[in-house]
């Protein structure tokens, strides 16, 4: 592990390398993920406050910093992969809507042959790059919109991606096409209200610590699902 001063200097160098203005990694905390302590992530203590500071620094509106939080669905998926490394070991893995890169990093730690983390937010791509380096794993990050493309991965993982009805309408056909082509598909969802009845079946269920501002309980029950 790098000493704090050396680690922050390395982050500053990486920020310049990534060239994402206002990213401000030095103001995030590198911490163990609550439900997946094997993985350390750069997270905001309060993502809402962090968002406001980012927008003030950038001087214009920015997308929500989903990459600065460890969402419950991603934590459950990452835990599932680390507890069942045979799911990822030796395989090509795609982490869709990767956010911080938590699930992608867990797949790499589980022995995946190749890991790609995809998120259309360029800040998330930067976060994945930094977080993968902090965990000493190799993860390729891309900001392309893949939902109309063809999946070539062996394992497709997606945490907390069914949070919006319109997005779910695009994501579900993509997941089903991937499964039809032979990819194993796993979704982590804390029941945000957009799970389609009969189209996904439960593989596992986990009580996951959560710090989401809109959730009263400190623990959420999260399901890991696959297409039926």
Automatic annotation (TrEMBL):
InterPro entries: Ribosomal_L11_MeTrfase_PrmA (IPR050078), SAM-dependent_MTases_sf (IPR029063). This is Protein methyltransferase. Transmembrane segments: none annotated. PANTHER family: ELECTRON TRANSFER FLAVOPROTEIN BETA SUBUNIT LYSINE METHYLTRANSFERASE (PTHR43648). It holds the Pfam family PrmA. Keywords: Methyltransferase, Transferase. The keyword Aminoacyl-tRNA synthetase does not apply. The keyword Magnesium does not apply. GO terms for biological process: methylation. GO terms for molecular function: protein-lysine N-methyltransferase activity. It comes from the Bacteria.
